[in-house]
C-alpha cells in the first residue's frame, strides 16, 4: 500500500539520513526502483513529473501500475508516489487519482500567490492524509520544458511557507536539474543553514541530485536535507547500458531484439544507480 512521505521523512530528518526520490518513466523504471528499495530494505519515493505522467498515459495509469507492482512484487518497504513539480491543477488531479504525496511548485509565483495556493492544497492533503512538498526559490536548469534560473531561497519566505503546515520544503540553494556545468559554484550551505534555522524540524528537500559530489550530499544531509531527488542520473545510466548492448550487436544475436532482453541492461543499470544513491544517502535498512 502506498504511504504518505511524512513518517519516512520525519524519521530521516531525526536520524540524519535522506530518502531518495527517484523519478520514474515507464514500467522498467518503476520495477527497478521498487525492487532495489525492497532488496536494500529502504524507504523510497517514486517521483512523477507532469510530463512523465502524461507519457505514461495519465496519473490513473501510474497509480494502477504502481499499486499492482506493490502487490505482485511483494513490496513491503514504505513507498510514496509523489507528483514532482506539480502545478495547482496537476496536484489536484494526482490527489484524485490516488497519489500518496504531491509537490506544488509555486516558486515562480509572487510569494503571496505561492502562499495562497500552497495553503489551499495543504488543507486538501491534510484531510486525505497525504504529504505535500512546497518550493521556495526556483531550482535551476531545465525540467520538462520548465526552465528555472536557479536562485537561493529567502529563509524568511521559507519559514512563511513551512508554517502553512507543508510536510517537506524544497529550498533553492544553487542546485540545478540535469548535469552541472563546469563553472557551477556548488551548493550554498550558508543558505541551507539559514533555512534550517528558520524552519526547525521541517524535512528539507534537495532537488537536482544528479552529479552533486558526495561530500556536498553529506554536508547537505547534516544541515537538514531529508529527501534528495534523482532523475537524470538514472536516465544516463539506462541510456549508456542500452547503447553498449546495441553497439556490441547483441540485438542482432538470436532473440536479442526481444524487448525483455534489449531493455534488461538498462534496467540493471538503473538498479545499480539507485543502490549507489541509497547507500550514499544512508537510507539502507531504514524501512522500519
Ligand atoms: P536531476 O535530474 O538533476 O537528478 O534532478 C531531479 C529532480 O530534482 C526532480 O525534481
Give structural notes.
This protein has 288 residues and is of the alpha/beta class. The chain is built from 12 helices and 10 strands. The strands form 2 sheets. An 8-stranded parallel barrel has the order 1-2-3-4-5-8-9-10, surrounded by 9 helices. A two-stranded antiparallel sheet has the order 6-7. Helix 6 links the parallel strand 4 and strand 5. 1,3-dihydroxyacetonephosphate binds next to strand 3, strand 10 and helix 10.
Number of strands: 10
Strand content range: 15-25%
Mean pLDDT: 95
Stretches with pLDDT under 50, minimum 5 residues: none
Structural class: alpha/beta
Sequence of secondary-structure elements:
HEHEHHEHEHEEEHEHEHEHHH
Count of helical stretches: 12
Q: Which strand order does the major sheet show?
A: 1-2-3-4-5-8-9-10
Biggest sheet overview: 8 strands, parallel, barrel
Helix content, binned percent: 40-55%
Bound small molecules, by name, code or SMILES, are: 1,3-dihydroxyacetonephosphate
Shape: globular
Q: What's the Cα radius of gyration?
A: 18 Å
- What is the CA-CA span between the terminal residues? 15 Å
List the helices and strands and how they pair.
Blueprint: H1 6-15, E1 19-23, H2 27-39, E2 44-49, H3 50-55, H4 59-72, E3 79-86, H5 88-97, E4 101-104, H6 111-128, E5 131-136, E6 141-143, E7 146-148, H7 155-162, E8 168-171, H8 189-199, E9 204-206, H9 214-222, E10 225-230, H10 232-247, H11 259-262, H12 264-281
Parallel strand pairs: 1-2, 1-10, 2-3, 3-4, 4-5, 5-8, 8-9, 9-10
Antiparallel strand pairs: 6-7
Amino acid at each position: 500500500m502506498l504511504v504518505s512521505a511524512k513518517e519516512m521523512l520525519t524519521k530521516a530528518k531525526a536520524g540524519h539520513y535522506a530518502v531518495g526520490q527517484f523519478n520514474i518513466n515507464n514500467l522498467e523504471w518503476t520495477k527497478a526502483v521498487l525492487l532495489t528499495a525492497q532488496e536494500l530494505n529502504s524507504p523510497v519515493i517514486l517521483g512523477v513529473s507532469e510530463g512523465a505522467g502524461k507519457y505514461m498515459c495519465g496519473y490513473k495509469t501510474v497509480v494502477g501500475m504502481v499499486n499492482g507492482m506493490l502487490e505482485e512484487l511483494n513490496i513491503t518497504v514504505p513507498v510514496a508516489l509523489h507528483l514532482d513539480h506539480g502545478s495547482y491543477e496537476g496536484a489536484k488531479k494526482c490527489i484524485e487519482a490516488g497519489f500518496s504525496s504531491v509537490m506544488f511548485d509555486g516558486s515562480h509565483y509572487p510569494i503571496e500567490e505561492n502562499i495562497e495556493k500552497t495553503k489551499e492544497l495543504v488543507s486538501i492533503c491534510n484531510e486525505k492524509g497525504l504529504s505535500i512538498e512546497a518550493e521556495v526559490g526556483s531550482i535551476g536548469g531545465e525540467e520538462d520544458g520548465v526552465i528555472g534560473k536557479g536562485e537561493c531561497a529567502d529563509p524568511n519566505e521559507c519559514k512563511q511557507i513551512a508554517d502553512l503546515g507543508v510536510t517537506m520544503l524544497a529550498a533553492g540553494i544553487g542546485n540545478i536539474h540535469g548535469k552541472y556545468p563546469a563553472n557551477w559554484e556548488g551548493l550554498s550551505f550558508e543558505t541551507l543553514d539559514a533555512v534550517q534555522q528558520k524552519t526547525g524540524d521541517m524535512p528539507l528537500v534537495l532537488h537536482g541530485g544528479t552529479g552533486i559530489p558526495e561530500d556536498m550530499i553529506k554536508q547537505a544531509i547534516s544541515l537538514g536535507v531529508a529527501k534528495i531527488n534523482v532523475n537524470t542520473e538514472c536516465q544516463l545510466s539506462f541510456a549508456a547500458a542500452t547503447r553498449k548492448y546495441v553497439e556490441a550487436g547483441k540485438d542482432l544475436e538470436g532473440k536479442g531484439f526481444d524487448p525483455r532482453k534489449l531493455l534488461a541492461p538498462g534496467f540493471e543499470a538503473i538498479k545499480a544507480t539507485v543502490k549507489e544513491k541509497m547507500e550514499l544517502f544512508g537510507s539502507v535498512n531504514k524501512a522500519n
